[in-house]
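tokens incoming
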């Protein structure tokens, strides 16, 4: 039997459950998941390998009208996802207005590659008639798409979606080594875990003004020594991140360390520092150094 391989790109508006779905499909916690919109800032690949096939899933930032340079580069990741996919998975949910983001939808409707439309969170639907009406509405908007009602959180119908993806994969040699789980280096996941803890522990715009950079990642047989810097835009934000008597940063450090230890299966020594980098979200040189602009 010929080996199959392909790129499956997951796109859609913020907060519809793209990362939850990707993690379910990949079977590893690769994309950070929080209830706040705009959690994913980069394209993150998760790779599924079997002897017969290799699927390279790609989770993209939610599509939204950009307010500053950082969001412009995030939108480019999402637009780029339309160009290099073998299969496109468009994710919506039962509460989202189908006409939201019509421009992007129009681009998806023109796609010649297979489009699988996932209506997520169907565990929230009260009756079958509502779901049927919603499905019919989406079918009108994306006539070429095959629709899958799922609940990524409950793992409902995800197996059928996965089976269909495997069916549609083109015949190809693998693109990555068969032991690869992702295209991202280890330190990338450290920054994502720390950023997730910041998203969960701080209110308002703090999480969106933050970038995390790993400056040191020393791995030994039994332990990893990590030094990371949390960048903020203003002095007042630095104070909030550190917290009274350093309590908040200590909490972030403890929560992140536990998850990093689980991720790598080793003891972790984690040091966190906070630095002010004024207006980094609008400065091209900073966005380049943080990996948002090629």
């Amino acid at each position: 039997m010929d080996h199959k391989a392909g790129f499956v790109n997951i796109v859609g508006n913020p907060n519809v459950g793209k990362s939850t779905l990707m993690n379910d499909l990949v079977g590893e916690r690769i994309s950070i998941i929080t209830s706040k919109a705009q959690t994913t800032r980069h394209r993150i690949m998760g790779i599924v390998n079997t002897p017969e096939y290799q699927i390279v899933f790609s989770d993209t930032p939610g599509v939204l009208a950009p307010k500053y340079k950082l969001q412009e580069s995030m939108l480019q990741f999402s637009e780029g996802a339309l160009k290099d996919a073998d299969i496109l998975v468009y994710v919506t949910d039962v509460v989202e207005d189908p006409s939201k983001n019509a421009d992007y939808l129009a681009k998806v409707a023109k796609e010649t590659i297979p489009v699988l439309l996932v209506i997520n969170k169907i565990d929230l639907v009260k009756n079958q008639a509502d779901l049927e009406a919603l499905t019919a509405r989406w079918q009108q908007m994306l006539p070429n798409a095959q629709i899958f009602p799922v609940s990524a959180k409950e793992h409902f119908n995800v197996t059928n979606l996965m089976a269909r993806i495997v069916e549609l994969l083109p015949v190809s040699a693998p693109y990555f080594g068969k032991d690869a789980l992702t295209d991202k280096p280890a330190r990338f996941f450290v920054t994502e875990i720390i950023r997730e803890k910041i998203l969960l522990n701080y209110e308002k715009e703090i999480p969106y003004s933050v970038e995390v950079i790993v400056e040191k990642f020393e791995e030994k047989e039994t332990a990893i020594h990590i030094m990371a810097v949390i960048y903020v835009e203003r002095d007042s934000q630095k104070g909030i991140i550190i917290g009274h008597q350093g309590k908040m940063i200590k909490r972030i450090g403890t929560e992140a360390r536990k998850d990093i230890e689980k991720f790598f299966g080793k003891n972790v020594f984690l040091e966190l520092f906070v630095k002010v980098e004024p207006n980094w979200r609008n400065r091209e040189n900073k966005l380049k150094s943080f990996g948002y602009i090629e």
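note: Confidence is low (pLDDT under 50) at residues 31-39.
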